[in-house]
Design brief:
There is one protein chain. By secondary structure, the chain is of the alpha/beta class. The chain has two domains: 32-195, Jelly Rolls; 204-395, 3-Layer(aba) Sandwich (Rossmann fold). It is built from six helices and 16 strands. Helix 4 packs across helix 5. The protein starts with 31 loop residues before the first strand and ends with a helix.
């Protein structure tokens, strides 16, 4: 990814990065210094990805497919907890690849990071692919969105706050097929500091799915990073309602046995193993996130070109067996939605799994008013209600 020419930001305190910094030093930012806001630029149509419109240039593991936006890993170490020695000040949500010493890279829907600020303003240095939309949350309320421009950017994520303690969160709305992002640093402005804080929850939820889970066009058409709202997907909503830490692993057009385009490679069982969905070298260490419950919502694309029959059942059961090996005590909700083509086959999957902790869940989709027949924000809200109720019933949350 392009690297900005460093310049001193005289108003900044020491920027907190994963490597730390020297007390009293001046934070280093980029040539882009702008206020955050809803900076919308048209996304390229050829980046479209969804059950009805898979990417025209699909990204395969081992090839980032993003030209200058891609960044080679610094070494061959496995991705792990990006918090490191500062994990009590900067908390990361989702899967991150920490092999680049400049900062951890991430791409999955609703990945993000948060910190507790004592002060009035906070800056973020972020790099990565262009036109990725992010959402800023201050003290529990969304305050703004911004889109990346493909450079290393200094972004004012909070300003003019009352002096005191504030939680500042930043979440990625755009799914992994649009490219990766890279966290570089948080830096308090005007003498503020980042305060040691504990994770918000010890409960963990993983949601695995396709474009419906990723929020494809849930804000309307045409599909772009302007109309994909990861923050308001059913999985993200449910996680906030239940106050649990989520990992959302979702890719438009993907299936359990075969994808929307009919390919039986780079299906979810393949991409599930990755910290970065398109980079086969970025293997994920599952010990970094042990969920209490996993929601698997896959089948729409498998059935897009007809019923795949036993192949779907066998692939699904193998994936469930893999989950059980990774997380022996986890509750798995094999999920469909009202009107799904794969509901009967999912019954067969649950029966074949023959495990009391593998159960079926049907989410209510009142209407598919999003882009290309996908759920809209209202449908996401209803699906979240169903998921919350079921998790409360099963786990007492």
């Amino acid at each position: 990814m392009p690297q900005a020419s460093p310049r001193p930001l005289l108003s900044l305190a020491c920027g907190l990065t994963l490597a730390g910094c020297n007390a009293g030093s001046i934070g280093i930012g980029s040539g882009t210094d702008r206020m955050s806001g809803d900076h919308r630029r048209a996304a390229s149509d050829d980046r479209r990805a969804g059950d009805d419109h898979p990417p025209a240039d699909p990204i395969t593991p081992g090839d980032s497919g993003h030209g200058a936006d891609a960044r080679a890993p610094a070494d061959d170490s496995s991705p792990g907890d990006p918090g490191g020695p500062l994990s009590d000040q900067v908390h990361f949500i989702g899967r991150f690849d920490t092999r680049d010493s400049t900062g951890p890279r991430f791409a999955w829907t609703y990945s993000g990071f948060w910190t507790r600020l004592e002060g009035t303003a906070l800056d973020l240095t972020l790099a990565g692919s262009t036109n990725i939309r992010f959402r800023v949350v201050v003290d529990g309320s969304v305050t703004t969105t911004f889109k990346t421009d493909g450079t290393t950017e200094l972004i004012h994520v909070a300003a003019g706050l009352a002096n005191g303690l504030h939680d500042v969160e930043v979440y990625r709305d755009s799914e992994a097929s649009w490219g990766d992002s890279q966290f570089i640093a948080f830096a308090p402005v005007g003498g503020g500091t980042l305060v040691t804080s504990a994770p918000k929850s010890s409960r963990r939820l993983q949601v695995v799915g396709d474009s419906i889970t990723a929020g494809y066009g849930n804000e309307g058409c045409p599909f772009s990073t302007d109309t994909q709202n990861g923050y308001l997907t059913y999985g993200a909503r449910a996680a906030r309602t239940l106050a649990v830490e989520p990992h959302i692993i979702a890719w438009s057009g993907i299936g359990m046995y075969r994808n929307y385009d009919g390919a039986t490679t780079n299906t979810m069982p393949d991409r599930y193993e990755l910290a970065l969905a398109y980079d086969a070298t970025a293997t994920w260490d599952h010990a970094q996130f042990v969920p209490d419950a996993i929601v698997v919502n896959l089948g729409t694309n498998d059935f897009a070109k007809g019923d795949p029959g036993q192949n779907y059942i066998d692939a699904y059961v193998r994936f469930l067996d893999h989950l059980r090996q990774l997380f022996p005590n986890v509750l798995v909700l094999a999920t469909d939605m009202t009107g799904s083509d794969f509901s009967a086959r999912l019954d067969q999957v649950v029966a074949a799994a023959a495990n009391p902790k593998v159960k079926k869940l049907t989410l209510t989709v009142p209407a598919r008013n999003g882009c290309d027949g996908h759920p809209d924000l209202a449908a996401d809200a209803r699906m979240a209600d169903d998921l919350v109720a079921r998790l409360q019933l099963e786990l007492g949350w």
